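Quick one, tokens below:
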């Protein structure tokens, strides 16, 4: 029996060549981000932001500080996936909707807040690790959402992080974790590259 979700996950590839004539509507971009933000985050902090770069002017500005990668101007959109430094003080605000709909008892909130404070307060390395985890997991969800909708994607670390932060006005607490182009893939793209054998990457303990 085939499982379409697993087939979809397993058949994703990185797109290098995009059909530059294919664009995405605001609604399509919003839908990709809506699906991506169903991904999990630590304490449901949702410490991410997605900047959808898609005007010709903004694409050119981004490409210039991203190793001149043609995907950025050819793909319909390139997201600057930002992770925000983990901050326990936003916790009650982030958990409020789960309390309101009756999923989480209100008396649990201080416990989560205290745990997050213990983990992140005055711990810059952990705050940043969490920002990168959040951005990476959000980008991953977006990659698979795009694939399921018939779109190609390209995760990219080939960019100047400081220049991106400056050019696109990231806040002090935001880390540009990844660029992620999304658009219509051309048929000439490479197939998926072989992977290391599972036996080489899996240990049981
Ligand atoms: C964190 C990360 C950074 C990457 N950076 C780039 C990049 O800057 N430019 C690029 O063309 N591909 C980039 N890639 C794509 C990888 O080269 C690609 O995923 C890998 O070769 C495996 O190929 P596949 O995704 O088609 O299986 C990146 C992928 C990841 C996950």
């Amino acid at each position: 029996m085939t499982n379409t979700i697993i087939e979809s996950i397993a058949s994703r590839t990185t797109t290098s060549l995009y059909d530059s004539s294919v664009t995405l509507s605001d609604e399509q971009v919003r839908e990709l981000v809506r699906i991506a933000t169903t991904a999990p985050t630590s304490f449901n902090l949702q410490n991410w932001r997605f900047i959808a770069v898609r005007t010709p002017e903004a694409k050119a500005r981004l490409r210039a500080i991203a190793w001149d990668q043609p995907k950025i101007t050819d793909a319909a959109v390139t997201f600057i996936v930002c992770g925000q430094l983990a901050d326990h003080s936003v916790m009650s605000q982030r958990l409020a909707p789960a309390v309101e709909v009756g999923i989480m008892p209100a008396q649990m909130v201080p416990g989560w807040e205290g745990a997050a404070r213990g983990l992140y307060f005055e711990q810059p390395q952990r705050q940043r690790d969490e920002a990168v985890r959040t951005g990476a997991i959000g980008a991953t969800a977006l990659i698979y959402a795009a694939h399921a909708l018939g779109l190609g994607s390209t995760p990219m670390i080939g960019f100047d992080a400081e220049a991106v932060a400056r050019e696109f006005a990231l806040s002090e607490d935001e880390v540009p974790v990844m660029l992620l182009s999304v658009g219509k893939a051309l048929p000439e793209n490479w197939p998926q590259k072989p992977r290391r054998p599972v036996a080489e990457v899996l240990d049981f303990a």
